[in-house]
């Protein structure tokens, strides 16, 4: 190959390297392969998790502040991380700008050679046309050699045109990088105007204070029920599913008990995701059949009503043994005082922020609901409260912060109609609707850890969110 063609081959090799570098390196440097950077007022939009919310506020007659705080999981300040990412991005842009500058110098130098080569090729093409017109006067051999050279050079013309286009593209990239670098520099200077170390400490201090406040806000009054969220569709029309409110944050085991009678099998899943997919981790065969659907898992043990009796059983999942059993004195059983839907739901076991409870009815209380607080180890009744609400007229019930909430039906249109406070031994009629999406609820229990209601709704396992009203007392309050 002649020297001009060798030099042209070197140019084409350079072009190939440039094209390869542009396709692989530029996207990763400027973030085109993951993130789109704009120059609008907000370069990065952060979607924080839901934070603390004030539900309502007022003053009592003595001038003390009374407010509501809805406190979901805490969210850490992420501004420092974003600032560090911005600095790293700026450094990458500056490094890229220097690389573009070097590449641009090489490109301009090779581009001048290409222009010169293009001129020579055009001159050669013109001469060839002139010679072709006079080919009759030339010897056949010389004409054929000249034609072969032209045939070799002709395919290079579109390549050179593409190279000119790539050179323009590199120039555009250089300009855009320069503009982006200026924007990032301006943003960095603006961020530097704030002392984020100090701000971060203030946020940490605030978070610590909010956590302390959270400990005081473990209890509140039910104000609203939203949902449901359908987790799974499985089993018969009646059943129970639950998690342990005293389990650690990493322990999200789910227990599943299908049907309201004639069953002893409890299925365990390691997480909600495994529950949805049906990946069982363990199966327990209880020593007794259960009655109803109103069981509860509390501190690693299952509490349930033994079939055809008013006996409460405490069963350990860890040891697979019965740890305690006790008869609930005078409690009706076997469909004597069930909820409106029946199903041997005479004795309802539940747990809240205060502890373990049993809700049932007795002849001594004329079939009205009795609330008993239980010792979780011995199942001994610590204290009882007699209400005036007929057990057979209740759709379902659940405890939150020592207050029993009763629904007026298990069918469509149900609402929380009645509440009884064990703290004050008083009751009130309420009107808190909730969406009974699948028309028949046979289990409704509150989980204090999740602050949610677990429900079995006509073969659907669903969750309801609850909104609680909290009264924050100052240190001056007595």
Automatic annotation (TrEMBL):
<keyword id="KW-0175">Coiled coil</keyword>
<dbReference type="GO" id="GO:0005615">
    <property type="term" value="C:extracellular space"/>
</dbReference>
<keyword id="KW-0770">Synapse</keyword>
<dbReference type="GO" id="GO:0045202">
    <property type="term" value="C:synapse"/>
</dbReference>
<dbReference type="InterPro" id="IPR003112">
    <property type="entry name" value="Olfac-like_dom"/>
</dbReference>
<protein>
    <submittedName>
        <fullName>NOE3 protein</fullName>
    </submittedName>
</protein>
<dbReference type="InterPro" id="IPR022082">
    <property type="entry name" value="Noelin_dom"/>
</dbReference>
<feature type="coiled-coil region">
    <location>
        <begin position="170"/>
        <end position="216"/>
    </location>
</feature>
<dbReference type="InterPro" id="IPR011044">
    <property type="entry name" value="Quino_amine_DH_bsu"/>
</dbReference>
<keyword id="KW-0325">Glycoprotein</keyword>
<keyword id="KW-1015">Disulfide bond</keyword>
<dbReference type="Pfam" id="PF02191">
    <property type="entry name" value="OLF"/>
</dbReference>
<feature type="coiled-coil region">
    <location>
        <begin position="79"/>
        <end position="141"/>
    </location>
</feature>
<dbReference type="GO" id="GO:0007165">
    <property type="term" value="P:signal transduction"/>
</dbReference>
<keyword id="KW-0732">Signal</keyword>
<feature type="domain" description="Olfactomedin-like">
    <location>
        <begin position="218"/>
        <end position="470"/>
    </location>
</feature>
<dbReference type="InterPro" id="IPR050605">
    <property type="entry name" value="Olfactomedin-like_domain"/>
</dbReference>
<dbReference type="Pfam" id="PF12308">
    <property type="entry name" value="Noelin-1"/>
</dbReference>
<keyword id="KW-0964">Secreted</keyword>
<feature type="disulfide bond">
    <location>
        <begin position="219"/>
        <end position="401"/>
    </location>
</feature>
